[in-house]
Amino acid sequence: MKFLIFSDVHSNENEKLFSYLDENIIDLVIITGDITNFGPIEFVNSFIGKILEYDVDVVAIPGNCDPEGVCEAITEASALCLHNQIVGYGDTVLFGYGGSNETPFDTPGEVTDEQLEEDLLTLLSGYECSDEPKVNILVTHAPPFETNADLIEGGVHVGSKGVLKAIQEFKPDINVCGHIHEAKSVDLIGETKILNPGMLENDGAILIDIEDGNHFTSEIIQL
Asked: Which CATH architecture describes the domain 2-222?
């Protein structure tokens, strides 16, 4: 199975995405938030609808810049809103949490980092491990704190301590995130691989290739 993951669309389609989907076999597309730029909500349906034309499944979470109702819009577009959900998909288990910790910009999808941590740990604690080998993928909009994925210009870390805590306690195989456009990167927390593809308009994406069981490769690609 091959997963294509990207983030921070901000209501701006990228034709290179559609060219990539036309030229490559992808099973699942994951969007890690900020599909819109504070709206319009109608963009969610049109954008996801175009992706579904490539015979792929789509999973998405809201970002901090998405308005209220985006999760419902994702569902109405025939995709799955993974926010605060656990979903099995083939040889993977996907854990999702959208929005972000607080920013200086008072965006609609923010919660306190304490609330984010509580919600994530509650979600993850409800998972009953399978005897079958699975790849556990944590899908968040906010990157974990103090990693390459949360560095803004000037070298300041602005990610979520709640996401960091969840990764340290649960130890997923992969965390895919977004939010910090300039922090396109690959990093590690313990054995958890952290990938931030940056902003879609800058042509970054993540490709995860999963073989039978829990064998996988993951990398940032250029569309």
From this structure: 4-Layer Sandwich (3.60)
- What gap in Å lies between CA 10 and CA 119, rounded to an integer? 25
Packed helices 113-125 and 161-170: angle between N→C axes, nearest 10 degrees: 20
Contact of 88 with 82, CB cutoff 8 Å: no
Q: Which residues contact 209 (CB under 8 A, 6 or more apart)?
A: 1, 2, 3, 216, 217, 218
Reading the chain (223 residues) residue by residue, the pLDDT tens digits are 999 999 999 999 999 999 999 999 999 999 999 999 999 999 999 999 999 999 999 999 999 999 999 999 999 999 999 999 999 999 999 999 999 999 999 999 999 999 999 999 999 998 987 778 899 999 999 999 999 999 999 899 999 999 999 999 999 999 999 999 999 999 999 999 999 999 999 999 999 999 877 899 999 999 9
**Sequence ranges of the domains in the chain:** 2-222
pTM tops 0.90, yes or no:
yes
